[in-house]
Amino acid sequence: MILYLRLFKESFSFAINALRNNKLRTFLSLLGVTIGIFSIIAVLAAVDSLDQSIKSQLSGLDKNTIYLTKYSFGPTEVPRWQRDNFPQTEYDDYEFITRNIPNIKSSAYVIIGSTETIKYQDNAISNVDVTPASYGIYEIDDLKIGQGRFYTESESSTGAPVVVIGAGLAENLFETEQPLGKQVRMYGRKVTVIGVLKKVGSSLFDSPDEKAFVPSNFVRQFTNGGLDGIPGAIMIKPEAGLDIAAFEQVLKQRFRVYRGLKADEPDNFFVNKLSGMTDAIDNIIGVMNLVGWVISGFSLLVGGFGIANIMFVSVKERTNLIGIQKSLGAKNRFILFQFLFEAIILAVIGGLIGLTFVWLVSIIASLFVEDFEFILSFWNMLIGFSLSTLIGLISGVLPALSASKLDPVEAIRTGM
Known about the structure:
Blueprint: H1 2-21, H2 23-58, E1 66-69, H3 80-84, H4 91-100, E2 104-111, E3 114-120, E4 123-132, H5 137-140, E5 145-148, H6 153-158, E6 162-165, H7 167-174, E7 183-186, E8 189-197, E9 211-214, H8 216-220, E10 232-238, H9 244-259, E11 270-273, H10 274-317, H11 319-327, H12 332-368, H13 378-404, H14 408-415
Parallel strand pairs: 4-9, 6-8
Antiparallel strand pairs: 1-10, 1-11, 2-10, 3-4, 5-8, 6-9, 7-8
């Protein structure tokens, strides 16, 4: 054991001397390892941070939430012309579902794709994302009230002219004034602000900070329905612990009967689930990880060749010393381990430099990117350290073998 500790110490000294005596050559050799480790760990850290950010933003939403509408949220085999002829999902459909589908915890009728200009006195904000929705949206979207309240079930049913706005929208529209009870103008009508949502910050999805919510029945009073009318969707949150597949089957069967579809006729609606979107996000993140590994792998390959090159040069420069060591009784494995340790130490130094750069970049990025935290986890750092060690081991095998097999007499003669 003491012998191997001494061997490690000597190998470390040789590695440091290589760094000192051949600074440019060693720098260029280690650059590949540093860039490779930096690339891989940076990609892993960025993807992990993105994944955690997405999951935290979806944490308040139930993955089993269902969106029933004429539109598909993903690829579909239904041709475009057929989808265009699907009837719009209307408020009557929503009322049927709430009365006839069991095991629904909450549901909401939502009008899709509504943007409006909201005015208050001399201030006007255009292209505001307005969501006309019935009361159930409050629970389904897990909205949080900062001031005031959300509109009630009664206000939702009667289509009261009230609005709940996001924190950012309230700041831009009212500046220092108190927004509650103020009347704003939208849809060409006066609407009373009854609530302000808690500030969420920037989001990969639509942040509620710049959104507004009004009762869907308020908008239905002055807009047209029908095939070419306002596009709608029914959001359904099933009760916890249900068999979602069975629930979805009951929903489809009863809604088909309500729509008057025959057994041989295809559905004229789509049942979209939030879990499908999260699965798609997981697949995208997996692909991003894979692409990052492939790209970074080329850098690691170049780094490995660089380490192998510097080790072959080191063997050649120390041929005389190797011959003397073997003539004094050094075993082949001693010479082998000496050069293997040296290669690993050089690679680990490059890996540690790469990890340091990633750590610095993550700190700087977290300071400049608001509401997004870059995560450099212990496991990612362990992966980086392990990879650099593995690169050193693989890169040093051939030079170490060539050194261990040198004939001591020939080695001394060659080195003189």
